[in-house]
Design goal:
Structural class: alpha/beta
Bound molecules: nicotinamide-adenine-dinucleotide
Largest sheet: 7 strands, mixed
CATH topology of the largest domain: Aldehyde Dehydrogenase, Chain A, domain 1
Helix content: 25-40%
Number of helices: 15
Distance between the termini: 74 Å
Number of strands: 22
Radius of gyration: 24 Å
CATH superfamily of the largest domain: Aldehyde Dehydrogenase, Chain A, domain 1
């Protein structure tokens, strides 16, 4: 891995060194990676202006085939530079090599390929209208780009989640202003280099770096930005909704979760234990889809908890470069403090700790990093803060249930509505219960298995709208109806 890497905004086809910068920190050992140069309001204005110009004169004027060929080139170049993406994402997040190689980085390229292909099949509606006098009219829709789309993304799956929005937005002919998380800007910086290398017209892709609390409003309230698509915390989503309100623009929100796993007595127990361990501890619990509440039917409760404890205690924690490591550190010191405060809250609320609860000790530089133990707790009420608030760390609460109606009611007793997983070998039960969970995604006997053509998003505090497949194309384009009078004669 190379050492110091400073990161700059990319606006109107140029990398820009701004006046203000802050440290980019490696969560493995707390060392400095480099400086991140933060955008200011005039630079954001310049980016919006450049984006509009590209949308109206270059990028937006290309044919769909031309645009998609360029987006495929982006994917090809990302694949060629894959190791750089792996290194950069690892430095920023501390996530494991295994996860980066199998999920984060390949999904980044897959997002570009999938949406570049899919947009070619975006159809429209047609209707023949019959009028009282016998005349007819032909109605059909034309899909137009929205214009300039702001994409604000979080730190937990930086490349994967940003490209999940950049690819369809650009495929539909929009220009984009991308603001990654201040914790994890490196892979977007690499992507900006690639946009430049493959000849994406200047202004079509702009990278704005900086802290959301400093520069977020200048983006979301901007009159020149036609839509905002955001992935992040529900609290930030509420703020953005207010900030964008005066300019009345479409918003797509993928927000927080408090996801349940339900394990029925008729589940394949070994598969369920492994599956729930994976859904709880993947990426140190820093996936919006991770399980934080597990409901286990009474007759298998003790055996399940024993199995899950064994899984948690077998997890290898350490240097993310080590192929055997499943859990690296949490993303930042601030997040480590937040998750530890949640562990403390669980203790204060009277939880029993089955496993974990603290910080692992290495007796080397990693003790300056932001590692945390995988943790399993029991014995709290559903109404406890621990069982109601999103933690976003490697922890789950396991509780016992007796029957289907009870567990559905308890799993739905939350302000969130993102995802759930059900573990059962009974097909009818799987269909019946999946339909009754108030969430955007249900997995049965699996977790985090994604098909990019399917709708993705949450209910309640977990989000507004759906992206994925045709839903993404729907959000990033404006269907406009053309009505043509057809005279009788
Ligand atoms: P966050 O809300 O703190 O930050 C997300 C992004 O918003 C960052 O780029 C940040 O700089 C920016 N931001 C912060 N304040 C802003 C403001 N006032 N205006 C505009 N932008 C602002 O979230 P996070 O801590 O980076 O990510 C973790 C959260 O994201 C968790 O709640 C998680 O559940 C959620 N998440 C949801 C999904 C999903 O698909 N539903 C996916 C991943 C993460």
């Amino acid at each position: 891995m190379s050492n110091i890497q400073d990161l700059y905004c990319y606006v109107d086809g140029e990398f820009v060194e701004t006046r203000q910068c802050f440290d980019n920190i490696n969560p493995v050992d707390g060392s400095k990676i480099g400086d991140i140069y933060q955008a200011d309001k005039p630079l954001i204005d310049q980016a919006v202006h450049a984006a509009r110009h590209a949308q109206q004169h270059s990028w937006g004027k290309m044919t769909v085939n031309q645009r998609c060929a360029l987006l495929h080139k982006v994917a090809d170049r990302m694949a060629e530079r894959e190791q750089e993406f792996i290194d950069a994402e690892m430095r920023d997040t501390g996530k494991s090599l295994h996860q980066l190689k199998t999920i984060d980085i390949p999904r980044g390229t897959a997002n570009f390929r999938t949406f570049a292909d899919m947009v070619k099949f975006q159809g429209g509606e047609t209707f023949i209208t019959e009028q009282a006098n016998g005349d007819k009219a032909l109605n059909y829709t034309v899909n137009k780009p929205l214009g300039v789309v702001a994409i604000i993304s979080p730190w937990n799956l930086p490349l994967l989640l940003a490209t999940w929005k950049i690819a369809p937005a650009m495929a539909c002919g929009n220009s984009v202003i991308v603001k990654p998380s201040e914790e994890t800007s490196s892979t977007m910086y690499l992507l900006a280099q690639i946009m430049d290398e493959v000849g994406i017209p200047k202004g079509a892709f702009n990278l704005i770096l900086g802290r959301g609390t400093d520069i977020g409003d200048a983006i979301t309230a901007h009159t020149g930005i036609n839509a905002v698509t955001f992935t992040g915390a529900s609290k930030t989503g509420k703020h953005i909704m207010n900030s964008a309100a005066n300019t009345v623009k479409p918003l797509s929100f993928e927000l927080g979760g408090k996801n349940a796993a339900i394990v029925f007595a008729d589940a394949d127990l070994a598969k369920a234990v492994k599956g729930v361990a994976r859904s709880t501890f993947t990426n140190c619990g820093q996936v919006c889809l991770c399980t934080e509440k597990v409901y286990v039917q009474r007759s298998i409760f003790a055996e399940f908890v024993d199995g899950l404890k064994r899984e948690a205690e077998n997890i290898t924690i350490g240097y993310p470069t080590d192929e055997k490591v499943f859990m690296g550190p949490l993303v930042s010191q601030a997040h480590q403090q937040k998750v530890l405060a949640c562990y403390q809250l669980a203790k204060d609320e009277g939880a029993t700790f089955i496993s974990g609860g603290g910080v692992p000790k290495f007796n080397d530089e990693r003790d300056n990093g932001y590692f945390i133990e995988p943790t399993i707790i029991t014995d709290l009420d559903d109404t406890s803060r621990t069982n109601q608030e999103e933690i976003f760390g490697p922890i789950c609460h396991v509780s016992v249930f007796d029957d289907e109606d009870e567990v559905l009611q308890r799993a739905n007793n939350t302000e969130y509505g993102l995802a759930a997983s059900i573990w059962t070998e009974n097909l009818s039960r799987a269909h019946r219960t999946a339909a009754q969970l108030d969430v955007g995604l249900v997995w049965v006997n699996t977790w985090f298995l994604r098909d990019l053509r399917t709708p993705f998003g949450g209910m309640k505090l977990s989000g507004v709208g759906r992206e994925g497949g045709q839903h993404s194309l729907g959000f990033y384009s404006e269907p406009s109806n053309v009505c043509i009078q057809i005279d009788q004669q």
